[in-house]
Amino acid sequence: MVTRSTIMDTNSFRSENSADLDPETRRLTDKRSQVLGESYRLFYRNPVHLVKGEGQYLWDAAGNKYLDAYNNVASIGHCHPAVINAVHEQMQMLNTHTRYLHEGILNYTEDLLATTPDEIDRAMYMCTGSEANDLAIRIAQAFSGGTGIIVSQESYHGTSGLTSGCSPALGSGQVLAPTTRVVPAPDAYRIETNDLGEWFAQQIQMQIDDMKASGIKFAGFLADSIFSSDGVMPNPPGFLKKAIDVVHANGGIFIADEVQPGFARTGDSFWGFGRHGVVPDVITTGKPMGNGIPVSGLLAKSNVLAAFSDQTPYFNTFGGNPVAMAAAQAVLNVIQEEQLQAHSQKLGAQLQSELTKLMDKHECIGDVRGAGLFIGFELVKDRSTKQADKALALDLIEELRNTHRVLTSVAGPYGNVLKLRPPLAFQEKDIDWLVGALDQSLSKLKG
């Protein structure tokens, strides 16, 4: 029996589709099956064989050009020259670990901390978001003296032992830690309440009370402030504040997982949490930080970090190495020099407006929501009942890939929300490509 994961298997290749593949794709999928572990997954019923990327575009082995509407790994654009040059130059000089002095890590840290609230004044570095969140959980436990972590119902925070135990999106095959508690996602589309912030704060308090009743001391709340895996739930701005007040009132800390909403993605703020008027105790980041170079970070209030760092030495061999720091510095420079936060805000608003117009033509679009270049496009069978249409969503992403060469994927507990999250290189001319593809694909599928 194969265990299905909500984030890994909703949009994925199945071996039963092998007969429909062209010979070369079939050869590659067979080889993957032979040499790679069975845990790996490929996107799409007909997997894409990519060989080149530039900005917001990708090319497959047959020379077909695609619009990337999903990838935040290459956050400022595939193969950005500034990152390529920075990495190349540093590789020619030095690459080693952080137990030697090097100015690169210090200069970058000063620049990065300048983007955070004043209370955040320390940084540590790793290679992946999983490692950053793993350390953040350890810090929460050291600071609070507890072990209990609260996450949202479909969240994903990593693949380590600690983080997978706090990642419901990994599915039934990954059992949550006994000290983890789950709150419903703050779904403004489906939850009927006059005050989403108060409702969400109550959900947090209920789980803290449940921990206490079970003899578990609360340590912290770990959340991605746009609730990406939950189906993209960014609004209304500010709704998180009451929940964070509850977290602090109960002796816990707030860990802002900024792997997805950080680095100018949401437009309104450099960091996703900034839209909510809160100051996290710990910030974690990963993928977008190095534009494809494995680097991640943890930023924290010094008094919170001290509970861990004053007692426990921490060393990550490749975390913060000179090449990774050169890549990260280049990314930060590009975001600031090219004013990508303002670009994300402006273009995201334009894209969301055009997507919303499609609702007049297609009854199957239940909701369009987002912040900056991070948009959820929800499909339903009936607007009045808001019944999710997962089958349509999966057929839609296949039609987008096969006919219109647009790449994206789905999110949310029902698998019916298209997560539109292109590289920040996305331009106004690309809106027509994406919106037109969605319009034509829905007309074909629902016609």
Secondary structure layout plus pairing:
Elements: H1 6-9, H2 23-35, E1 50-54, E2 57-60, E3 65-68, H3 81-91, H4 103-113, E4 120-126, H5 129-144, E5 148-152, H6 161-164, E6 180-183, H7 196-213, E7 218-223, H8 241-249, E8 253-257, E9 282-285, E10 296-301, H9 302-309, H10 322-337, H11 340-357, E11 365-370, E12 375-382, E13 387-388, H12 390-403, E14 406-407, E15 409-411, E16 417-420, H13 428-446
Parallel strand pairs: 3-14, 5-6, 5-7, 7-8, 8-9
Antiparallel strand pairs: 1-2, 2-3, 4-10, 9-10, 11-12, 12-13, 12-16, 15-16
How would you sum up this structure in a few lines?
This protein has 447 residues and is an alpha/beta fold.
What structural class do helix, strand and pairing data support?
Answer: alpha/beta
Q: Which segments are poorly predicted (pLDDT under 50) over 5 or more consecutive residues?
A: none
Number of strands: 16
Count of DSSP helices?
13
Provide the succession of SSEs. HHEEEHHEHEHEHEHEEEHHHEEEHEEEH
Strand order of the largest sheet: 4-10-9-8-7-5-6
Measured distance between first and last alpha carbons = 37 Å
The CATH homologous superfamily of the domain at 81-337 is named Type I PLP-dependent aspartate aminotransferase-like (Major domain)
Q: What's the CATH topology name of the domain at 81-337?
A: Aspartate Aminotransferase, domain 2
**CATH first level of the domain at 81-337:** Alpha Beta
GO molecular function: pyridoxal phosphate binding; transaminase activity
Cofactor: pyridoxal 5'-phosphate
Keywords: Pyridoxal phosphate
Pfam families: Aminotran_3
